[in-house]
Amino acid sequence: MSPRKSGNAGTSIKKATKGKVRNATPTTYDKINFKSKLEVFCYKLLLKNNIEANYEKHKFIILDSFKYNDEAVRQMTFKPDFVVLDEFVIECKGWANESFPLRWKFFKHFLYQNSIQLDLYLPRNQKQVIEAVETILRKREEKRKREELLQS
User: Fold this and answer.
1) 28 part of a folded domain
2) Mind listing the pLDDT tens digit for each residue in 21-60?
3) Can you tell me whether residue 137 is helix, strand or coil?
4) What's the pTM?
């Protein structure tokens, strides 16, 4: 599919077909079906650095179901790509669809309302994935040093 030029100079827009994530190539690696190559890259980098890498293991209910004028409104959920509870969330997003910013905002609100403190990473390319993993490793090392000081 060739890019269509928008009114803004230097930008291009690709139209997504129904049911397909825009600009994402589904890929299977380690018997896991990933939605994009960026997720596979992140998974491999996490494993390489001995960081837990459970793909889409945790699902958060960010808005409960409810009734409105006798109509049942379904709950809204969010399933981040990688979660290490009490530490971080990584959500790989090359191209975000139109509903993602609102869902991300609801997820942050859910964390806030429930006093859950996690570092959030939203890498959009391989460089940002590398930076996120480096930050996680640095924070782990700083925590290890603090704990070591407290024990001595």
Assistant:
1) yes
2) 567 899 999 999 999 999 999 999 999 999 998 999 999 9
3) helix
4) 0.82
**Residue pair 136/119 in contact by the 8 Å Cβ criterion:** yes
The per-residue DSSP string of 43-101 comes to: HHHHHHTT----BT---EEEE--EEETTEEE--EEE--SEEETTTEEE---SS--TTHH
In a domain, 54, yes or no: yes
Residue 113 pLDDT more than 90? Answer: yes
SS3 at position 130? helix
Q: Is 4 helix (H, G, I), strand (E, B) or coil?
A: strand
Q: Is there a domain that residue 79 lies in?
A: yes
Residues in the chain: 152
Distance CA 108, CA 36 (A): 23
Tell me how far the alpha carbon of residue 80 is from its chain's centroid.
5
Look at residue 5 and tell me if it is in a domain: no
Three-state DSSP at 11 gives coil
Structure tokens at 138: 């640095």
Number of domains in the chain: 1
Cβ atoms of residues 33 and 26 within 8 Å: yes
Distance CA(52)–CA(121), nearest Å, equals: 15
Provide the terminal-to-terminal Cα distance of the chain, rounded to the nearest Å.
62
**Pair of tokens at residue 37:** 């190559």
